[in-house]
Amino acid sequence: MAEPDRTLILCIDSDDDIGIKGKVKTPLIGRDANIQAATKLALADPEEADANAMFGAVKLYDKLVKDYPDESFEIATIAGSGKGGVVADRAMVKELGRIQKLFVADSVILVTDGFSDEELVPIIQSRIPITSIHHVVVKHSERIEETYAIIFRYLKMMVEDPYYSKVILGVPGILLVIFGFLMASNQLENGGMVVAFVMGIVLVLKGFGWDSRLAELEPRLPPPDRWINLITTGLGGIVFIIGIIRGIDYAWSIIPLPILPFWDLTYWATNSADLIGAFILKGTDMVTLGLGIAIAGDGISIYVQNKEDLKVWSNMIGILLLLWMRPISIEAAHIIRNPDVTITVFSPLIIYTILGVVSLTLFVTWVYRRHGRKLFKRPT
């Protein structure tokens, strides 16, 4: 006597709403297990389409068992991952393999809550023949009120679901922050360049799938007292970049673009000092401020973590160095752009340099004499 055909009714939850919302571990096999899991998911989110798909799979299972008593049927549910993409596909294939060990099926009837899950069809087809695909689509009223309710539901999903919100809200949020800094520094004319730069990075990350690889790294969040360092470093980095942009923009403005070909090496050799000086004049303030914010934030973070940590003095030395480097750089830029200026002992550049060297030497000497043994002690 020939063995009866063995058919697997397979329900797919590619974004793992069963595990995330229903707190149910997959794979699920058996009618009772699927009903219990679908009930938990429906109680957690009554509007979840995957719960309807699971109940639809159970209904289909009951109908087939009744209509074909001579055949063997089993129902199972597999889930992917909230990260989507390759991660979700690999998770579902792994769970399908576990089900195949428990129920060796001759064919599969695929049950989904829409057409997006059909991307997995070739993968399943390569392991078990698919004889049918059953769609369970929730019916909505055609009334205008319910149409608005559906629209607002998906808008809420785009805001609260991390998978969508990081692109829909995160990228515009970054652009708005950068525009705010550009407006504060009167550099709004460079907004187009910033938008192109940020959107280019986003498209490259999404296009090559690097965002999924970065997400798989799952970096550990730093302790709360380290957030001071991260925030000030980020703000300082933005201010630093604005300073670089300001310097480049001013240096670019003095180049006679309508008549200057870029391959005119004579012009670049003759005017390179003037361009460098122009860059330093306009970019020094913001660059110095950005570095100062980062160094100060690092010192505050160290002090908050351990008040006895003497590395704070190193940050104070760095801030003092920046305070003197700013006027020295500006005076040097003036001389670079006007080399005919006479330099005497009383020139601002000489005075700032001498005062900077003397004050730094005295401060470092005082720190060394007071904390030298602890500050410069090598770890054993």
Short characterization:
By secondary structure, the chain is α/β, with parallel strands linked by helices. 65% of the residues lie in helices and 8% in strands.
Strand content: 5-15%
Count of discrete domains? 2
Average pLDDT figure:
78
Helical amount among residues, as a percent range?
A: 55-70%
Category by helix and strand content: alpha/beta
Which regions contain 5 or more consecutive residues with pLDDT less than 50?
none
Largest sheet: 5 strands, mixed
C-alpha geometry:
elongated
SSE blueprint and pairings:
Elements: E1 6-13, H1 17-20, E2 28-29, H2 31-44, H3 49-67, E3 72-79, H4 85-102, E4 107-112, H5 121-125, E5 130-135, H6 144-160, H7 162-168, H8 170-184, H9 191-207, H10 210-217, H11 227-253, H12 265-305, H13 311-337, H14 348-375
Parallel strand pairs: 1-3, 1-4, 4-5
Antiparallel strand pairs: 2-3
Helix pairs in contact: 2-3, 6-7, 8-9, 11-12, 12-13, 13-14
Question: In words, what does this structure look like?
Answer:
This protein is α/β, with parallel strands linked by helices and 380 residues long. The protein has two domains: 130 residues, no CATH class; 156 residues, no CATH class. Helices cover 65% and strands 8% of the residues. The chain contains 14 helices and five strands. A five-stranded mixed beta sheet has the order 2-3-1-4-5, with helices on both faces. Helix 6 crosses helix 7 and helix 11 runs antiparallel to helix 12. The longest helix has 41 residues. It is elongated and about 105 Å long. The mean pLDDT is 78.
